[in-house]
Amino acid sequence: MGTPAQQQQQKKPQTAITPTRADDFPGWYQEVIKAADLAENSPVRGCMTIKPYGYALWENMVQIFDGWLKDYGIQNCAFPLLIPVSFLAKEAEHVEGFAKECAVVTHHRLEADGKGGLRPAPSAELEEPYVVRPTSETIIGDSMSRWIQSYRDLPMKLNQWCSVMRWEMRTRMFLRTSEFFWHEGHCAFKDHEGAEKDCITIQDMYEKFFREYLAIPGIKGIKTPDERFPGADQTYSIESLMQDGKALQAATSHDLGQNFAKSCNIKYQDETGQEQFAHTTSWAFSSRVIGAIIMTHGDDDGMIMPPMVAPTQVVIIPVIKADEDPAVMNAANDLAAKLKAQGLRVKVDDRNMRTPDKMWDSIKKGIPLRIEIGAREVAEGKLTHVRRDIGKESKTTETTEEFLGNVKNVLKAVHDNLYQRALDFQNGNIKDVSSVDEMRAYFADEKNIGFVRIDYSAVKDGGVMDAMKKDFAVTTRCLPHADKGQKVLVGRSY
Amino acid sequence: MGTPAQQQQQKKPQTAITPTRADDFPGWYQEVIKAADLAENSPVRGCMTIKPYGYALWENMVQIFDGWLKDYGIQNCAFPLLIPVSFLAKEAEHVEGFAKECAVVTHHRLEADGKGGLRPAPSAELEEPYVVRPTSETIIGDSMSRWIQSYRDLPMKLNQWCSVMRWEMRTRMFLRTSEFFWHEGHCAFKDHEGAEKDCITIQDMYEKFFREYLAIPGIKGIKTPDERFPGADQTYSIESLMQDGKALQAATSHDLGQNFAKSCNIKYQDETGQEQFAHTTSWAFSSRVIGAIIMTHGDDDGMIMPPMVAPTQVVIIPVIKADEDPAVMNAANDLAAKLKAQGLRVKVDDRNMRTPDKMWDSIKKGIPLRIEIGAREVAEGKLTHVRRDIGKESKTTETTEEFLGNVKNVLKAVHDNLYQRALDFQNGNIKDVSSVDEMRAYFADEKNIGFVRIDYSAVKDGGVMDAMKKDFAVTTRCLPHADKGQKVLVGRSY
Q1: Which of A82, A284, A393, B201 is the most buried (most CB within 10 A)?
Q2: How do residues B110-152 score in pLDDT, each as one tens digit?
């Protein structure tokens, strides 16, 4: 019988992750990362170490999207990690938004401190300090000012994959860390039309990438002025709804107008010989998208990896008794080879562990498809497979031949299911309201989650959103393209 | 007739690069980089910007070698960019070798300086400063101390691709810059045998990679104690000879013994339950290898790209008169599609430029194979191609069909020729000497370049090498495996 608390606990289904999403979403999030062995906090304040399984996910994402960028005509390059402080001061709005919390390099040498440790050498203080790049508009703009001479040099489309640093006081792995990984695209065009088209094209690429590879639905829109990138004329974003009902800005493209061109002196001679300022853009998605994957798909048993980018798409667990080793292991390895030949990422879990521990490990890691092969299966030429997104109800035993002919469809079905349930959740959590009062009443109840959709004209002026932010910690997320800029989504966000 | 100086100038063959290698090798090197558009100095002291053509070369190298590392069982991950200063102080020899010249982060915020600029905010001084990683043994060692518990966790094989910073006062693009790109492998093993085997396996991989992909011959050996990595028991290196007769250390693998395991506390429980310190290794090659490619293969007309990693392997130059545009351009594009279908990296140079300018551009960029197609070639179903490594003597006109059947062999021949002539140069510049006096006499003549090979026992003690360094700026490069540790190579180096 036990205490009421114990009784309640007994009633709950057992989950691999404690706490559950319902009990404590942020606590659940941290535990999922730990249980899936994706990353951990490092000894460097606010920075994380991305562990092999987490980094493999990022590498898969990078490889695919980098190919798309190259097809779009992007050229990768590498700009310095450090940025002179004077560069940051060039663009007034930009410095306001970014300069504050940076890692500042002031010395170029250490020396013994006389107490067995090291200290910055006073004789090696830099004349001008540097910051570790928080973003690279200013230093890439400086290069563009030299690389661009004529209209023939335009468009110029550059990108770099790198890490950046913004000193954060309250950090959460993947979502907000002082150092994070991203790509940053920086392009220059002759005119506004070129820059605008670039932003929209890239926004479409982001939405497609999230949909087709991460199984994450995104709402395409533009940001309200107060939520724009510092120094941008227009910010295009993808907003996604996490399972706790908070929005996550998954990717942005910025139309920088001529602001950075003027502060960085990016000029070109046009077809008539006149000097003109270029129009520039910048755009990015970052390793925080891994946080979005966790919070979109994960369940109370842990991570669920979207199959298209999963580091391991199929795990094979040999259910072995000591005297049956060779046949079962041979069958597992043979199956793995056949799956690899289909281009799939496969792993045979041959570790010296109990079978149930291996099963739970694969569940917590979110491997989309788990195969179990025991002696009887081998004898019958069969195998059993279980989908991670559905669990034991999807348990299927079939011949190896049938499975091999169908495995890609099964993985596709996992992907489609993940996307559809995220889309249903998102669509089911957009509340249309017709007045500010109705919006306030909605968010006054903390159980109400997701987006409110309201006429933009109703919240645009008069301090409406200042009050919303102060009272309910909600902000405008975007003006969806689908509503032609007439409506705005309001909600809590990461 | 002109002045004597002008006459002399007229006598020299025209070259695309001024100065020539013979006139001023360092000046030639800088000009090759500029003419090939590989990189440029940045506004950040000692740091370079790698431009798209240079970065594409690096990306090709990364892609290939990363695949090899994964086949070897390496797991990529990402460790923080910053390292606490106290970490550097952990390994005594290591700190002596590395701590001195680093980018030191002392503040986490900027503030307005009242003069329109920004300064580090005094209120945001860090309690403990960080350095931008000069190398990551200490911070990866810290993770390993937590990740490794038992002999079952070993070997642990980690790697990251990143940039690192070592403050340099005298910089040269690719060869010595404050920020440079590299991969750094870090492994832990149960015993000395595991660590030693790892170092040798990786050294073999480096030599094979340089030979098969970069067409650079390398001499495998071990470093003398004074030239080892700070904190290593043994350093294995690949040494290559540049065209000016100076050696370049192209890659190293370090057997760190138990030194870092002890300072970082990397322990494991062995099969008998006893606690043991692990044996660790680290190894790397960096973007300085691009400097080695330039100085191994380049000629007085500029860069020569090794075909296996060349960003563009084949350039097609349509030799166009206005009224023939469509047919020639169509043929060029059709040919490009067929070469791409063979997996080759191809570019049609359709820029609005004079044909000779395009030819010279492709020469200076070092594109291994240049194709010219004009109206007559199109009419006859033929094309003309020229190898970059040989030049106009290799000019061949043949049918498009013949060419398509043979193009991979031609590229292979370019590669083989580049490797063979570099190998001949290297082998032809190793001078065997039988005494220190003979070695001194050799280097006393500045015209004498390359390596001296001498009994290691003759130079090991008694300050012989200190005097050699002081008098002739030469050092021991390595004890070649081929000489079983009995001989040492001595020479000038980068």
Answers
A1: A82
A2: 998 888 889 999 999 999 999 999 999 999 999 999 999 999 9
Phi, psi of B29 (to 5 degrees): -60, -50
Confidence of residue B324 (pLDDT cuts 50, 70, 90): low
Q: Of B82, B89, B111, which has the smallest distance from its Cβ to A44's Cβ?
A: B82
Q: Do A49 and B165 touch (CB under 8 A)?
A: no
* List of residues 6+ apart from B193 with CB closer than 8 A: none
CB atoms A52 and B76 under 8 Å: yes
pTM of this structure = 0.95
Percent of chain A with pLDDT over 90: 88
- Give the other-Cβ count within 10 Å of B125's Cβ: 14
Helix (H) or strand (E) holding B481: none
> Which chain A residues are within 8 Å of B116, Cβ to Cβ?
89
Contact A118 B84 (CB under 8 A): no
Q: How many CB pairs under 8 A join A and B?
A: 198
Identity of residue A75: Q
Cis peptide bond upstream of B19, omega within 30: yes
pLDDT(B6) > 70: no
* Average pLDDT of the segment spanning B4-23: 76
Token look-up 């939520």 returns A227
Distance CA A243, CA A237 (A): 19
CA distance A49 to chain B (A): 5
- Look up the ipTM and state it: 0.94
The answer to whether A99 contacts B110, with C-beta atoms less than 8 Å apart, is: yes
Burial grade of B494 (CB within 10 A; 0-12, 13-18, 19 or more): middle
Distance, in Å, from the CA atom of B320 to the CA atom of B353, rounded to the nearest integer, reads 10
Count the neighbouring beta carbons within 10 Å of the beta carbon of residue B482: 9
Residue B7: is its pLDDT beyond 60? Answer: no
How many residues are recorded in chain B? 494
DSSP H or E segment with residue B396? strand B396-399
